[in-house]
Amino acid sequence: MIYLDYQATTPLAPEAREAMLRWLGGPQESTFGNPHSQHRMGRMAAAAVELAREQVAGLFPGGGRVIFTSGATEAINLAIRGCRPGAVACSTIEHAAVRDTALASGERIDLAVGAEGLVDPQVPIPAGAGLVAVMQVNNEIGTVQPVAAIAARARAGGALVLCDAVQGAGRLPPPAGADLIAVSAHKLHGPKGVGALWVRDGVDLAPVAHGGGQEQGLRSGTLSPALCAGFGAAARIALERREEDCAHVEALWARARDLFAGWTLNGSAEHRWRGNLSLRKDGLDVARLMSDCRTVMFSAGSACASGSGRPSHVLKAIGLTDAQARSSVRLGFGRYTTLDEIEQAAARISAAAREQGV
Question: Is 293 one of the catalytic residues?
Fold first, then answer.
């Protein structure tokens, strides 16, 4: 099997797995305590959570706090519902977690993108918008948005700024100017089931789920020390290896672009995280392609919406026709991908496409 779906999830880092194992203790061990209990075992578990919080905080700018959640979707819900912004302005290529929550919470105002999949840094901020949401790196086409420029204009108009940094955290510097940043552990080689919302100092949120008042009164529920520890270790390793990982991805990108020279790139080649290769070939039957290439794990679009039967809203937003959107594939690679895997995958995919006559 060749795994090229890093935007959907990433392999668990060995360091994250090791950090988790200690907190999966059985009845003869002392590491299964509830981190919200006041006895010794509870305090031990709580210490593990706080160490993880410090490690995850390293992903973000200073002057804020980290709130653990079950993932980025919950973090985004907490950010939007918790700040009660009224109207939410968000780009047309935001993840459904942002767009659907904004719509459910009140008025959603769309900010268009151009053909390269970028929001204009001078886009007008709609009057009355209490929150502007622009993602750091798009999950489907990999484009890197001008968050800092948009954030400066939004905040000048009195709006808060939410950034979905799921695809950029640990790979790129933190998005400058954001008031709220959502991340997910399993997109940076941590475990599934845990994420975080970073909240800038001075930003007030209301809880959206009530109960025991854990997580600074904003997110009730018992935390998993194992998941938090895995997240913390993954964040630490991502920061330590960022330059090395980026250089590796650049090399893989360059080789992949050569191997797929006859395909059309979706989105900007310049303003992009190069671990995301979104490509299309007119007339390609992607369902058949995936069936013919069962040993290569790649995506027909976003894994979050796969099987819906609808063309990708991201690809439609950059001006692709339904047919072009449906003829697109996404290859995602990163830290543990080898050059040989890229070459083998390209050969299999290209051969399968030729069998279709495209």
Answer: no
